[in-house]
Amino acid sequence: MSALIKVEGLTRVFDVSKPWLNRVIERKPRALLTAVSDVSFEIEENSVYALVGESGSGKSTIGKIMVGLVPPSKGKVEVDGVDLATEKDNAKVEAVRAEIQMIFQDPYASLNPRWRVRNIIAEPVAAKGGDTKGLAEKLLEQVGLSAADASKYPHEFSGGQRQRICIARALASNPKIIVCDEPTSALDVSVQSQVLNLMTDLREELGLTYLFISHDLTVVQHMADKIGVLYLGRLVEEAPRDRLFSAPKHPYTQMLFDAAPRMDAFGREVEPPKGEIPDAINPPPGCAFHPRCPIAIDRCRTERPLMRPIGDTRVACHRAE
Amino acid sequence: MSTPVLSVRDLVVEIPTRHGILRPVDHVSYDIHAGEILGVVGESGAGKSMTGNAVIGLLDPPARITVGQILLSGEPVHALKGEKLRRLRGKRMAMIFQDPLTSLNPLLTVGEQLEETILEHMNVSQAEARRRAVAQLEEVGIPAAEARIGSYPHEFSGGMRQRVVIALALCAEPELVIADEPTTALDVSVQAQIIALLKRLCRERGVAVMLVTHDMGVIAEAADRVAVMYAGRLAELGPVREVLTRAHHPYTAGLMASTPLASQGRKRLVQIPGAMPRLGNLPQGCAFHPRCDRAQDVCRRDPGPTLDAYRGRAACWFPLNTEEKAAT
């Protein structure tokens, strides 16, 4: 299998400084927030690659860079061999862009309340002047709603149904890749399982590739083929699903697994993890995780660990073996 | 058996609307004893938050309690109003909300907010109130409490802010704490810290805790007993291990099976068809019957046995997993 998406040395820095005058008066330096820092990975065709991490780990920013909503500061994302940020040939960029679609977290905020469902779903095709006749109806049935729903407005649907509409819209332009940013976080458990099943079915039917962004380890474990763990904008570990869950190498991954609530852990008494995610504007030097790491040594405080392979796993930790 | 700290008896909350009367809480009964955590789970709209709000007297009109009783250590509190209710809230029962940023006053330092609550409810001097405020912040695990007591809420991180809210809830030493989705807005590692803190405070101080959440994992780890709600009614109530591993109500069983963890190794997740009905549009009989694969004629006709605090576990005509229990 070949890599459909190649992400190399991806970095995104946001300028969160105060306005110029305030900086001068208060003698404050520029504040730069590194949301994504030197992240590299590859996604194979027809696979599900999941990014997990806590809030502020940069997972959504990576998703946005991939669909072109945010340009990268450094590094590149290559889809089908085309680098979206630098490619000069507009026809190529357009072709690749149509292949990538996105599903957002909040189905209440991502559908225009004043548009009929038919227009919402057909928009990706209509925007390019394509033929949209009967398209919305066909897609609605494909995602488990009825064709008659096309003339309704979003407020007439429940959360799970709205997320189905979002999926239908994402499918409208026949994409190869769908970036799913926390697609089920806003849904109830019983509805979540319906949406996840739908996504699994569609992937098989249409040969889709998913970049699946989530903070929920159980959902990721169910959906993903390969998982990348992010911490403070850095990829700290990447491994195939079963390997990551059976043998997590990075101390942060281990901490995350231990902290996640488990349904079989009745009255579990464990020492909860220490500390919180540090400030991304002034990240700790060396390994970003060292202030919370139980096995940190002096080297971790000064030298940022590079990704290195251990078996099928890639891990950025000086002490992992 | 000692008197439970909280006793909810046959509680009904109704909201009159133009399209008829809605019942977000429909004949619900349960008890919480001192030092016990009762988990209340359900999907959004199941009435779990509404039950909590009814207990602490925070129902927004036109929602009101029409039937039933709420007893706090044996005293009826559901009919209290105005000054009497105010003396009770914050003193004998307290609430922790989901979003710590909106439940703190951004214009007052956390110290001022804590001291205000302590002075209001306890008969102590200003200096003593301050000393207690610092002690309280230390107890919930805020480092350098003495120095941070003058900070404003926005200067704290999300996890620390939720600790402040917990300190605020506990500072007048209440008997009952209602925690409404206290960890939903937090990250996994911080969530683990907050749950450990709640459990420790509950054990050490003997506070009764009503933990409202939609996360089964949180329930499994924190709660002693669990109440499962569906469409305003109590579907199942029992010890957490029993309910989660051997559910009697088909809805509980479906809920457990549809979590990705339980379906591990399967390619597709188990799913409950459909969605929870809206309150204005409840089916006749058992509210769950259109989604239930065990439903029979009686389920479509009759709403099923209501669940009393001491009798029965599941409000279902055809409960699951009961055979072995009958044998023993």
Automatic annotation (TrEMBL), chain A:
Q: Which CDD domains match?
A: ABC_NikE_OppD_transporters
Q: PANTHER family given for it?
A: D,D-DIPEPTIDE TRANSPORT ATP-BINDING PROTEIN DDPF-RELATED (PTHR43776:SF7), TRANSPORT ATP-BINDING PROTEIN (PTHR43776)
Q: Which GO terms describe its molecular function?
A: ATP binding; ATP hydrolysis activity
Recorded family membership = Belongs to the ABC transporter superfamily.
Q: Where does this protein reside within or beyond the cell?
A: Cell inner membrane
InterPro entries in the cross-refs: AAA+_ATPase, ABC_transp_ATP-bind, ABC_transporter-like_ATP-bd, ABC_transporter-like_CS, Oligopep_ABC_C, P-loop_NTPase
Q: Where is the ABC transporter domain?
A: 11-257
Q: Name one GO cellular component term.
A: plasma membrane
What protein name applies here? Peptide/nickel transport system ATP-binding protein
Name its GO BP terms in alphabetical order. peptide transport; transmembrane transport
Keyword ATP-binding part of the UniProt annotation: yes
Q: Which Pfam families match?
A: ABC_tran, oligo_HPY
Keywords linked to the UniProt accession: ATP-binding, Nucleotide-binding, Transport
ATP-binding in keyword set: yes
UniProtKB/TrEMBL annotation, chain B:
Q: Would the keyword Transmembrane turn up in this protein's UniProt record?
A: no
Q: Which residues form a coiled coil?
A: none
What superkingdom heads the lineage?
A: Bacteria
- Give its localization: Cell inner membrane
Q: Which SMART domains match?
A: AAA
- Asked if the Swiss-Prot or TrEMBL record annotates the protein with the keyword Transport, the reply is yes
Task: Note the topology in the membrane.
Answer: Peripheral membrane protein
Question: What GO molecular function annotation could you give as one example from this UniProt entry?
Answer: ATP binding
What's any GO biological process attached to this entry?
A: transmembrane transport
Residue ranges of every copy of the ABC transporter domain listed in the record: 6-256
Q: Give the UniProt keywords, A-Z.
A: ATP-binding, Cell membrane, Membrane, Nucleotide-binding, Transport
Q: Name one GO cellular component term.
A: plasma membrane
The family line of this record is: Belongs to the ABC transporter superfamily.
What protein name does the entry list?
Peptide/nickel transport system ATP-binding protein
Q: Which organism is it from?
A: Citreimonas salinaria
Q: What is the lineage of its organism?
A: Bacteria, Pseudomonadati, Pseudomonadota, Alphaproteobacteria, Rhodobacterales
